[in-house]
Structure formats: structure tokens, C-alpha cells
Design goal:
Radius of gyration: 23 Å
Low-confidence stretches: none
Oligomer: single chain
Number of helices: 19
Mean pLDDT: 95
Shape: globular
Distance between the termini: 14 Å
Length: 556
């Protein structure tokens, strides 16, 4: 079997103007970034805003494992299958971060014959959106330190600066740094921190903003520090809004590319789901809903993170109402959750499958809490046996879910026909009764407890003293009515990555929380999750190269 990048590089792409024309978009309504990438103009987005909405289908997954689940692959393949069935569908995805591309996780273009292309462009610099976000974030940091250097008119407490610099790379040594060393003219010496760009509040703000006016409003209320009396200091207070917005002007526009089978794909924004809200931009999703009869989108990592935040943060803020959810699993991942080592997953093991399927069971139960019909799809591997597949099918149907095999990695859209037909049948016969999990007026502690007990299955929540103090300050400053964005390991329903399956008898450990006022949520850090990842002993960067013709190798 060819590698993902080999398949992508051998594909014959259509000019992006042809993809746009197939959607009724004229050449004047797109801004070209070469032959195969374009941004949708603000004028076009405004012009179609009165179109009726299509159906919204969310693709999510069980907790990720080293065995692989194929959530993005399934999303792309499902969109291609809709095209095979003559349905007008648009895929809406997140942009990849450079950190995991050069780390362990890899890119986010799908896989096999269910990919969005151009794959190398998407996984690397793409249209520069992440660079713009990085620049805007660090401009805000520079203006903050400059304000203090130039007299500190706002009486900012240099010991209570909460705005962090960012870089879109896994670089652990930047987590905790000291800045301002040197002469008096080099600034005040203080401890500072970096987060990865996809954890920057500006990433979340860009992905939740309706338009430029809303973007500037959200940028303005971002809390960057506290003054000596404990009151919040915002980006607006330090005069950072206009210049940040100028850097983000083009990044706010959604990007249009295509799949291997020329299905239109809007790829825009990319907050991590384990440390941010994990969804592509509201503008991208809304635009896709106006452009087509079906919008197929995804949320990051497992349903306990991505789907929960898609529902409780993105849908709540944007007024979106999903019509169906596709939950992706694999026999291999379920056996891994049942205790089988990665090297033994190719062998049939019904006992392990019966143990590991508890992880899938919990995700089904969680999604059903939101009133949205669930279709489980098993991303097929050649090592799967008929007995294993039959067991999973019967289990899902006993839980009131539709079930379909997906073979899109190997066969592209043709391999997703069974899944597409099940999704269409569900959309036609089972109306969604979508609702969020908690009320905004609930206390911060109540929201955290609701997610922890109902979604993760914990016995409750334990708070570090610093987190309790931060909660009190947030409520005192009027942020108590915001939804919460839980920062948690993606590998387990708990906050301990080693607890696989459906763990019980645990509590969620909250060590820190802070407000992302521009994004409109409170970030709650649990366990040992990091907002600046590090590289592994053997990162993918060691295997990525480019030859003398400009051909890139090693991306996956």
C-alpha cells in the first residue's frame, strides 16, 4: 500500500476555480493562493447568508489510541461518499498544527484514499493563518510589556500577567522562561510562558468570531493581566485591538480546497481539543451550511473532549443545531482499550474486545445525552475478523444506534457508501432534539462537576488550592456565567492517560483555571495536560525531507 503522501502527490487535482464553480462561486468571489487553494471573500459569505441551512453532521470518535481511529479519514470519506450518491455536500475541517506534524501525531489531512489535498501545503504553511495568529498573539505580548516599560499607566501588576507568548511548535523549554534580562532599557525582568499557537486565545477567538466586527470585540475583552487592585486589564486597555485585527484580516476568511475525489472542503482554524475547544471556525461551518445541502464537520480527539466542546461551546455560542453524529471506532482500538498490546492487535481477541467496547459504550451514552441521533461506524482494517465486526455491530444496535462499516481509507468514497446511506436514513427518519448539557447560569463548579461526572464518569472533582482561589476571582470579576473548556488528556475518559476503557472510581483533579473572555469560556486545566507540548525521543521531524526537485517526503 502506498503511503498517504504518495497517494496525495500522485492525485490529479482540479484547479480550485473549478471546485468553486461547481458550488456556484465565481472567480471574483475567491482569493487565490496558487492553483489549488483559495479563500472565500467576505462579500460572497455575506451574499449567501440568507440561504437556507443544510443538514449538519458531526464526526467524532472514541478516545484515541496508538492503534489509530481515523476520524478525519472518515469525515473526508463520508463527504466523498455523499458525492458518489449525488448529494451536494461540503466538508468543514480544522487546519493542522505544525507541532504534531513534526512530532508524533502527524498531520490532519485524512489518510489513504480519503484525504484533502494539497496535503503538503495543508500540513505545513497552508495560507498562513497560523502564522498570522502567532504574530497577533505576540504583538499583544509585546505591547503589554512595552506599556509597563513606558510608565505603566494602567498600574499593571507585573506579578499577575496572564497573557502568554506562543509558537506553533512543540518546544518544551519555552514553557517557563525569564524575559527582560539585560539593561534597564530591555524591560522589566519577569517570569513568562509560551503556549503552542493552537492553544492561544486568539485561535479560539478567530474560530468563534462571526465577522470582523465580532472579532475586534472579542479581541478587545481578552484579559492580559490584572492591576494592583486585582481588576482585569484587557487587550483593549493596552491599545492592541486594531493592529491585531489588521494581522488577522485575511486569516478570518475560510479556506477552500478539495478532496482526492474533488469534494469541496473548507479548512479553517485549528484549536486543539485537549487544551482548547477543538473545532474549526464558526464562519467555516456556517458558510458550508449555506453552500450545500449537507455540511460534514469534525471535532477534535475523542467525543469526551471534541464533541462535548462542539456542543457546549461552539453550538451554544453560534446557535448551531447538529442533525446527526457519526462516532468512529476501530476493532483494534477497542481491543487496545481491553488491554491488548499494540503489537498483538492483529490477532482476534474477543475477550479483549468485550472489555474494551466499554469505551465506545460510554461515548454513545454521552452523545445521546445531547438529543442527537448517533451512527457508529467501524473504520475497517484487514485484520478485523467477521466475529469481531459482528459483535460490534450487534452491540451498537442494542444501544439504539445505526451501524455501518467504513472502508474509505482503502476505497475512498466508494468505501463510505454504506455509512453515507445510514447517515441519510437517520437524517430522514430521526429528527434531532439537540440541547446542551448545562445552563450558563450554573456556577463554575457546577459546570465542571457536571462534565466530570456525566461525561467522564468520575466520582467528583478535587481542586488544588490555587484553582479554588482562581475560581473565586473569576466569579468576583463577573465571568461565572461562561461555559467551561476542560483541558484534559485525550487518551482517557479520566484525567489519567493510563486509565483505558471505561474507568471508574476516580476523581478529576483541577490544578488551574483562567478566563478566555474573548473566546467566551473559562479554561480548566486538569491532571498533567500541557499547553506547550514537547517532542518525543524520535519525532516525525527526523523523517521529513525535501529533494532537489522540491518534493516533500516523510509527512503522514
Amino acid at each position: 500500500m502506498k503511503t498517504d503522501i504518495e497517494i496525495a502527490q500522485e492525485a490529479k487535482l482540479a484547479p480550485i476555480t473549478e471546485i468553486a464553480a461547481g458550488l456556484g462561486i465565481s472567480a471574483d468571489d475567491i482569493e487565490l493562493y496558487g492553483r489549488y487553494k483559495a479563500k472565500l471573500s467576505d462579500e460572497y459569505i455575506e451574499r449567501i447568508s440568507s440561504n437556507p441551512d443544510g443538514k449538519l453532521v458531526l464526526v467524532t470518535a472514541i478516545n484515541p489510541t496508538p492503534a489509530g481511529e481515523g476520524k478525519t479519514t472518515t469525515t473526508v470519506g463520508l463527504g466523498q461518499a455523499f458525492g458518489k450518491l449525488g448529494k451536494k455536500a461540503v466538508i468543514a475541517l480544522r487546519e493542522p498544527s505544525l507541532g504534531p506534524c513534526f512530532g508524533v501525531k502527524g498531520g490532519a489531512a485524512g489518510g489513504g484514499y480519503a484525504q484533502v489535498v494539497p496535503m503538503e501545503d495543508l500540513n505545513l504553511h497552508f495560507t498562513g493563518d497560523f502564522h498570522a495568529i502567532t504574530a497577533a498573539n505576540n504583538l499583544c505580548a509585546a505591547l503589554l510589556d512595552n506599556h509597563i516599560q513606558q510608565g505603566n499607566e494602567l498600574n499593571i501588576d507585573a506579578r499577575n500577567i496572564v497573557w502568554k507568548r506562543c509558537l506553533d511548535m512543540n518546544d518544551r523549554v519555552l514553557r517557563n522562561v525569564v524575559v527582560g534580562l539585560g539593561a534597564k532599557s530591555d524591560g522589566f525582568v519577569r517570569e513568562d510562558h509560551f503556549v503552542i499557537t493552537v492553544a492561544s486565545e486568539i485561535m479560539a477567538v478567530l474560530c468563534l468570531a462571526d465577522d470582523m466586527a465580532d472579532l475586534k470585540k472579542r479581541l478587545g475583552v481578552m484579559v492580559v493581566a490584572y492591576d494592583m487592585s486585582g481588576k482585569p486589564v484587557t487587550a483593549s486597555d493596552i491599545g492592541a485591538v486594531g493592529s491585531m485585527a489588521a494581522l488577522l484580516k485575511d486569516a478570518l476568511k475560510p479556506n477552500l480546497i478539495q478532496t482526492l475525489e474533488h469534494t469541496p472542503a473548507i479548512v479553517h482554524g485549528g484549536p486543539f481539543a485537549n487544551i482548547a475547544h477543538g473545532c474549526n471556525s464558526v464562519r467555516a461551518t456556517r458558510t458550508a451550511l449555506k453552500m450545500a445541502d449537507y455540511c460534514i464537520t469534525e471535532a477534535g480527539f475523542g467525543a469526551d473532549l471534541g464533541a462535548e466542546k462542539f456542543f457546549d461551546i461552539k453550538c451554544r455560542q453560534a446557535g448551531l443545531k447538529p442533525d446527526a453524529v457519526v462516532l468512529v471506532a476501530t476493532v483494534r482500538a477497542l481491543k487496545y482499550n481491553g488491554g491488548v498490546a499494540k503489537e498483538d492487535l492483529n490477532s482476534e481477541n474477543m475477550d479483549a474486545l468485550k472489555l474494551g467496547i466499554s469505551n465506545l459504550e460510554k461515548h454513545i451514552e454521552n452523545l445521546q445525552k445531547y438529543g442527537v441521533p448517533v451512527i457508529v461506524t467501524l473504520n475497517a482494517f484487514v485484520s478485523d475478523t467477521d466475529a469481531e465486526t459482528s459483535f460490534v455491530r450487534q452491540f451498537c444496535e442494542s444501544k439504539g444506534c445505526e451501524f455501518a462499516l467504513s472502508k474509505v481509507w482503502e476505497h475512498g468514497g466508494e468505501g463510505g457508501i454504506e455509512l453515507a446511506e445510514k447517515v441519510l436514513h437517520t437524517l430522514d427518519t430521526r429528527p434531532s432534539d439537540f440541547h446542551v448539557l448545562y445552563d450558563e447560569d450554573d456556577s463554575i463548579g457546577s459546570k465542571i462537576n457536571r462534565i466530570s461526572t456525566e461525561i467522564y464518569g468520575s466520582d467528583g472533582v478535587e481542586y488544588m488550592p490555587a484553582a479554588l482561589k482562581q475560581m473565586s476571582v473569576l466569579e468576583k470579576n463577573g465571568f461565572g456565567n461562561l461555559p467551561v473548556c476542560m483541558a484534559k488528556t485525550q487518551y482517557s475518559l479520566s484525567d489519567d492517560a493510563d486509565k483505558l476503557g471505561r474507568p471508574s472510581g476516580f476523581k478529576i483533579n483541577v490544578r488551574e483555571m483562567y478566563v478566555s473572555a474573548g473566546a467566551g469560556f473559562i479554561v480548566v486545566l486538569t491532571g498533567s495536560v500541557m499547553t506547550m507540548p514537547g517532542l518525543s525521543k524520535s519525532p516525525a521531524a527526523y523523517r521529513i525531507d525535501v529533494d532537489e526537485t522540491g518534493k516533500i517526503t516523510g509527512l503522514f
